[in-house]
Amino acid sequence: MGLLSQGSPLSWEETKRHADHVRRHGILQFLHIYHAVKDRHKDVLKWGDEVEYMLVSFDHENKRVQLVLSGEEVVETLQEKGEKTNPNHPTLWRPEYGSYMIEGTPGQPYGGTMSEFNTVEDNMRQRRKEATSLLKENQAVCTITSFPRLGCPGFTLPECKPTPVEGGASRSLFFPDEAINKHPRFSTLTRNIRHRRGEKVVINTPIFKDKNTPSPFIETFPEDDEAAKASKPDHIYMDAMGFGMGNCCLQVTFQACSISEARYLYDQLATICPIVMALSAASPFYRGYVSDVDCRWGVISASVDDRTREERGLEPLKNSNYRISKSRYDSIDSYLSECGEKYNDIDLTIDKEIYEQLLQEGIDHLLAQHVAHLFIRDPLTLFEEKIHLDDANESDHFENIQSTNWQTMRFKPPPPNSDIGWRVEFRPMEVQLTDFENSAYVVFVVLLTRVILSYKLDFLIPLSKVDENMKVAQKRDAVLQGMFYFRKDICKGGNAVVDGCGKAQQSMELATEEHEEYALMSIDTIINGKEGVFPGLIPILNSYLENMEVDVDTRCSILNYLKLIKKRASGELMTIAKWMREFIANHPDYKQDSVITDQINYSLILKCNQIANELCECPELLGPAFKRVKDSGSKTDSSN
Ligand code: GLU
Ligand code: MG
Prior knowledge:
Structural class: alpha+beta
Largest sheet: 9 strands, mixed
Number of strands: 19
Strand content: 5-15%
Number of helices: 22
Bound molecules: glutamic acid, magnesium ion
Helix content: 25-40%
């Protein structure tokens, strides 16, 4: 989840005193990097995925499942046995926000050859196996996006009472501080977000109204004024960073060949974020209730919203510098490539001094405003030992601000003095139950970058429309019910896409001629195409694959991955969110009252774990008769 410094964390008051120092030096560090590597090019495609996991423990006798607070030890042992023993070890492990979470990535980035797509799933399997091997009996490693009973009494092992005291980190009525990773970064982030904001975070997620759900649905908090005021009728109320950052996701990072290619991909993929998020929807339940959303995005966004009341526009500006329209965890606010410029139609709050300084240093308007926008934020954590740095050779202050801007896309300058190139990170996806699905989503996104670059595709639409799409994408069953703004003609490439923008001019004329360059489309149309309306991303990927030299086995894997995406988009297969909703609805203990009891939760997570470990089939999610013949590397799929 970002930069992990060691040392003594400062309080919010102390951190705030150093905020200008961190920003000033963060910018100097960025400038050093920029000047050193702005002309770097011919880097090859390298990429990697990040999978976040939860550790769970089943109590079969009492039919309960709990989150195990042993993530720190598990990561340490995984590192000892892995990267610390062998620098070429195929997996890497990192801590995540929850003490019950771990994060795994491939040991080395994948390269640009097609056959690498055929190694992703095996690597993910190895990760699951490594982590599982360290667990106690009845424990499992699960790739679930949100734990349905997160924040319910006794949801952790060992059980811990919430710590609603000022000296604690969250002050939550539901989420104990013991469930936060013990690395001081995480509790300090939690506390400092709350202190900066001036009150606890407030998350209100709409409840799904079932037949027997009380209407209005109102929770009362007689002993807590703050909760009584903050909680909204017909919503599930949550009050801690853990409800958001304690969720798991699936991310992909790519190295581009140059800064301009990275900026181009950043923009193009930004338009894809809401579409793929809806396709990956996997988090319908919060704090023991069935919600009316399918994705975690809005929950995490609110869970780290450190804006003051003034910044949120609730009070006139007095002590804060700006009104800020979004949380630090949200969709991007500006395109970065020249082609994107004319679609930058969102009001952008920037630090003007930083913007001017960057321009004077020779940085162009678009990049300068991007960085000056990220830098309206304060640092949230600072370690006493890390205040004075060597700006020419370190980048912690830059990373401090950068890595706490959790946006749909992240534009990543190379670390100082490294052989890593310019990278972009794709961040909206929810994690799937199986390694097969996670590989499918990852491979789909990486292949999409290949066709965007090879065919010079253009997906850009006004950024305000992408934001509207983000809202639609989180809704229940958005994948089938939602309509999304999407560019109609994506193939007007010309040659100027990456290095200049003759095309922007051309499209401008078209805009006036044809009225709008975009239309509302269903995900099925966007992904699978519709005669006379839109070619569809999967047909484009298929035609790209036909022209590529790919060995039979890899082709077979890729086709199975694309088939999953295709069928999820058409509704032939369910998203995880939909499948989970049906599972609950059909559970004998469910009373149609939107409540997920311990027993229901146990059955659900047990089933998820069986699916993930191929102990049972789940054709509604994965397709019929999908069999992967283990270890032989060959795969068969009789579904068509
Ligand atoms: N777990 C967070 C999510 O679900 C992401 C944390 C990270 O950036 O690694 O989006
Ligand atoms: Mg992470």
